[in-house]
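Example complex used in Figure S2.
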Amino acid sequence: MKTYLDCIPCFVRQALEASKMATGDEALQEKALKAVLLELEKTPLKNKIPPQIARKVHRIIRKVTKNNDPYAKVKDEYNRKALKMYPSLKRTVAESKDKLLTATKLAIAGNIIDFGPSSKFNLDKTIEDVSDQDFAINHFNRFRKALKSSKKIIYLGDNAGEIVFDRILLEELKGKDITFVVKGGPIINDATIEDAKFVGIDKIAKIEVVSNGDPGTGPDRLSKEFIRKLKGADLVISKGQGNYEALSEVDANIFFLLKVKCPLIARDMKTKIGDIVVSS
Amino acid sequence: MKTYLDCIPCFVRQALEASKMATGDEALQEKALKAVLLELEKTPLKNKIPPQIARKVHRIIRKVTKNNDPYAKVKDEYNRKALKMYPSLKRTVAESKDKLLTATKLAIAGNIIDFGPSSKFNLDKTIEDVSDQDFAINHFNRFRKALKSSKKIIYLGDNAGEIVFDRILLEELKGKDITFVVKGGPIINDATIEDAKFVGIDKIAKIEVVSNGDPGTGPDRLSKEFIRKLKGADLVISKGQGNYEALSEVDANIFFLLKVKCPLIARDMKTKIGDIVVSS
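Predicted assembly (560 residues):
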């Protein structure tokens, strides 16, 4: 998905929130925010997708505030919170008529734990709502079929905390050869390998890292090498808006599972804010 | 009121909205928005109040887009819309037990017509709500008394459309020597002398202009000359957030009438978004 002019105010708001999480020093917050303003001023939007710019923004915040992981606290908080919910989520799936559907919906509900579009969200309400909510884009039957015939699956994770909900879905896919992809370094509240291990994903899937934009944090999510891997899988499950922004134009067998939280993604997908989506 | 770091994302959003109103040319919108990013990067926040920065932002938009009045259309729309409401608003006041209270509340309801904090608002609902809404800061009795003993009143107007609601209140102040202050040139949807004449304020009050920040648009709202005038009045009625931001620290007999629309003003006034305020 291309970067719209409307992304700019959103990047600036995100930069402010990240600076505040990174440091209590207001002068440093101002310095970081202004460095982002300068970067956004210099960056041509054309031929850039939003995650490419988001990387730069958050790299600047980490660098200027000298805080390598501004969202560490909320990531830990939501990993723990979601782990506490795990037994009751498992019960919900076990008691449901259609376990795969329920697990898929829960995995999408977990996608609300996203500090990119907003630092204000209501996890409990989202979990409650999702059970009665229809998919705004409903390729679920296609998804179920594709899962049946697939052996090699790549699952692109999104946020810390959310990955507990992914674990619920992963546990419904037993017997498959699954690679769970996380970031190679901190960016916003995206899950890293530490998060994946903390919530036990390493016991059900192989884990692979892609770059957060910093050197040495793994192959790039947009690199030819990585795209080739996605194409080589029987099926790719892509969680969240960032992965959609990066991969919406890639020709592979990708199913995008997400909750719509951004007005531009809503427009791009012809959906509304708050909608849930399984889109191939 | 001082400028907070939180004002920055809001200025950027405002700049984007203004650019879109100013021109349909996306390249020009980007150019204008980026010029604003650069200006915000250069501007130290310390010792600056938000209206000083807002002026710069909107001056840049007007200059880069070569559109001297990006909000002309919505200003005209809301002047006309409010004028159509005028007879029913007058009836509401006439039929009320406490005419001054009703007119004051309506003048505050009209303050929702503010394209600064957001271009999305619901005028009809605000008018409806306000009749049952208590003031979050209630110096209304003090306001009533001060009006009784005042001859020379300065009324600082805020937005186009809103000034029809101000006219309702002005008409309850008959016999006073009233100066109604508007902007000397376009900025956001602030009322100018043309707006004031269009809705008939010139028939009930003298009109004076203060600068929108452009050269030749009158004395500055923050100038010693203007502050001296405010101090010389028996009573100053100040409408809206911008005037509060500019004058909250000025030692004159000012009553701030406004609807709270910004989280920082809410914090500064110890109120909530949506609250209505009569504060001396």
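The mean pLDDT of chain A is 95. Chain A has twelve helices and seven strands.
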